[in-house]
Structures are given as structure tokens and as C-alpha cells.
């Protein structure tokens, strides 16, 4: 695709995920070019910048698509403004603070006739399709998820994570749930959950979920934001014919113990290719299954106060 | 309809709501006759009784419909068994512990070709259609909900309410949310919530929710299970052209201060008429909007431990 035909896209919210993943993927994209940014805290050299998204939408009618990378708490009014201004919209995960926000955005996108893409980046990890193929061909009786990372290392100073609507340990944990719901063929139900909430925070720092489906698969997930030393993002599908283990957030299937952060290589390149496809076909992709599992964990869960967390 | 043509229906779960509402409504019903009951704690004189629903389903193929009135924690496997046995299914509210359970039941009913009716009895309160008509013809800027009752008076000894999946104050509060979502025309979003959870319970004893919609209506709900003295189940819709107030759980529109319990007169008669209609048309009615608001309140909420509750 020639440069002149690329979709002009703006990025709103220039925090860690935008700078680490979206901007490099856009620099490599054949389908999109970064045409503008919006963030009250300032922009990038040589890219047209707006402090407020509303001004960007008003002054840059040539920008036809937007990636929204802000924390979840401020996302809904910005998403609504973009859709009402007729722009295609890509949402970083989670797609909203609540299921109600996502349903409202789905309706707005449909009314505006634009594409809405609620992304789950971990679903684009290289080992996920291979795991799905394996699960389709084998009986699975048990799934074990261990998603344990050091919040001080990966989310330094991100206070929004601990505030209401910030998801706490479900911010990384929903990545595991997005892989799980993409790999297992049947709808999942949360059977029980325990949520550990620091006494000075609104969101859990650790959670343990028991889930199942109508085939009786026993799924246990341990999510923890207090993991020092080696970091763990593993998911094992086990049955009488063998097992397959995703490691390092789905970036590999090897049997070695994982070290370091999930590589996320290619996840965002694939996300932007998929966004271009959706726009081309006039379609949206909005799967709330991972967010619904988090909501259900709260509905059926037992919260336990735990010691205060200080960054 | 002649008696011989009535649907033979079984009631599973002979607790308070079954005895107070379902059995009297069934005794008056022209569309259904009570043919059997299931409850591990024993049955009724002169009605065929089974300790286990599975046996009822196996031994009474003539029973074509089931009302499920158990606490939410044990409902899913019973509901699934009934649907897989090809029976039309009426669910007392809430329709499940989690959204995932309700979605799974919806899929099972569709696969089995039977009617699934997730009831919200308060929607059948006499003043609800009049409130909906009023709201359709007037601008609403503000909704105030006060749903305050004495749990010791209305739920004596019902320990399941305080256990995980028991909903706590949302057990009555979801009635208010079912009226609200039936009266307001636009989808609602939870903006913030505070949940007071007794230190010896898994579910909240009080909650305060702020909600809105895309027209900017400001909705405040105060739910409290600790209300002694006069009991309150009120919902006021207010705007520049006036206000309408539902009182006593939607059973009247008068301006007098409400006293005593919501009358619930006719709610369950209307529910069984609607169930017969759905069966006749081969349709289901499953609206998760009230349950989604509760889930979203947990997602975006801030929990506060409060003093232990003892029945």
C-alpha cells in the first residue's frame, strides 16, 4: 500500500503502552501513519499535538482513525467523542471500566457506521494459535494459570491501577483471561474467587479464580502483583493425552522456565493489520468475554483486606 | 383455557419466595398447574415431591415447565439439567450468580429449543408501565433511588444472602435496577460505587451507586439492608417539567410516605401469564441489564469493610 493511501491515525494517551508498543508498531505499519497525538501532558517531536482530543477531532478531519491508550478511568468520554465524530476507534485493553461502557460504545459505533476494535493484545502472541489448534485436537481436563509479576517493575508510579476502575492485578490478569477465552472453545463460568485488596487501595493486588465450562474443565488461575525474582506468565492445558504450556505471556511454548518480560513481539503489528482489515470490511470486533470474567469474579468473589501497598 | 390443556409445571426450591409468591400465583393460574415439587428439605401435602430435581426430570416426563426458586448459588446445575432435559424454564431473580452463568443458560435453551424466562418481578409492579409512559413524554434530568429495608425482617435466617454469590443488599437492590432499566430508554453506565461489606460477610450490606446515560441523566441509588422503622422502596424521576415517584417497590405512585412491604400484588400472576406467552411463541426473554449493573458496580466500586452483621 503506498504511503499516500495509508489511514491517518491519531494516538490519544501517550503513556507507557503507547510509547512501548503502539508508536513502534505504527512506525512499521503499511496501513496507518501517525498523523497526530492527544495528551494533556505533552506530545512528541515532529508530530502534530493537541492537549485535548476534542480539539484534535475538530481540527484534523483528515484523521480517520484513533487509538485510545489512556487509563480506563478516562476512556469512555474520549471514545464516545471519537465515535460521534465518525472516527474508527481502536481501544487498548481493557476496553472500558465496565461492561456497560463497552456496550454503549458498541451501540455508538454501529450508529456512526465506523469500526470499533476492542483489542486484547495477548491474543496476538505467537503461541496462542498453536495452543488453540492443540486444544481443538485433544481432550483438556485441567487448565492452570500462573500470572505473577512485580507491579513495581512493570507499572512504576501508575497510580490509576489502584484506583476504582483501575483493575489492580486484573490489569495483567485480563491478558491471561483473553488468551484463555480465545483458546478454550466453550463459554467459561467463574465458580469462586478470592480477591486480596490492600487496605489503602480500591483494586486487588492478588486474586485466585476457579472457573469451569460445560465440559467440566477445571481452571485455576493465580494472579499476583507481588512477585519478586523470576516473573511468571504461564498457562498449562492438561489432559489424558498430554499437555501444552504457554509461557512468557504466550510468546513461547518451550519448556524452559521463562525469564524477563513477555516479549510481545509482533502483537501490535498484528493488531494494526487486523484494525486495517476491520476498517476495510466495515466491521467491528468487540469481545467482552475477558472483561465479563473479571466482573463475574467480583460478583462471586470474596474480598480479603491485605496489607497496604506503597509504590 | 381448559384445565386439561394447562402446562404441567414443577417448582424447585420451596423457600420463602416460592411459598409467598409462586405457589399462590400458580393456584390462580389458567395456564399452569403445579404438578410436582423438588427440594431436599421436603415438599407440600398432596403434591408429588422429589428430593432431587434430577429424579423429577427423569420420572415426570409430563412436566414440561419448571420454575427455579433456589438461592443463586445452587441454581446453575439445576437450570442446566432442566434445559438439557428439554423443559421450559422460569428463573426467579437474579437469574444467576454471574453473567457467565446466564449467557451459558441462554445458549443451552436455544440449543434445546425451549423457552427461558429470566424474570424480574418488580418490572411487573403496577406503577412501572405508568412510569415508563411518563418518562417517555418528559425530560428526565435526575433519578433518585432509595431502597432501604431491614434484612432481619424480610430475610430472616437466609444465610445464603451473605455468602459469595449471594448479592447481599443487591438482592433487593437489583429489583430497583430492574425497574430503572425498564423505565429509562437509554443504556446505563455505573460511574462510581461504594460498597459496605460487613467484616464477617462476603456480600455488601449497603451500597451507593452513581450512574448515568448518554443523555447525562444523573442517577443516584442508595441501597441499605439496615433500615429499621419505616421501610423505603422509592424511585423518583425528576426534570424541568415535573417529577414522578414510584413508591413501595413500584406498587404505587401516590405521594404518601410508604409503609410496610411492597405489595407485589399481581406481579407473579403477570409473570406466569408472560411465561405462558413465551412458551406459546417459542421465545425466550433474558435481559441481563440489571445484573450487569451490579457486576459493573463491583468492577468500578470501592469496598469498605464495616461492622460484622449477626442475624
UniProtKB/TrEMBL annotation, chains A, B:
SUPFAM superfamilies listed in its UniProt record: NAD(P)-binding Rossmann-fold domains (SSF51735)
Domain Gfo/Idh/MocA-like oxidoreductase N-terminal: 8-117
Gene Ontology molecular function: nucleotide binding
One Pfam family per UniProt: GFO_IDH_MocA
Name of protein: Galactose 1-dehydrogenase
Organism: Tistlia consotensis USBA 355
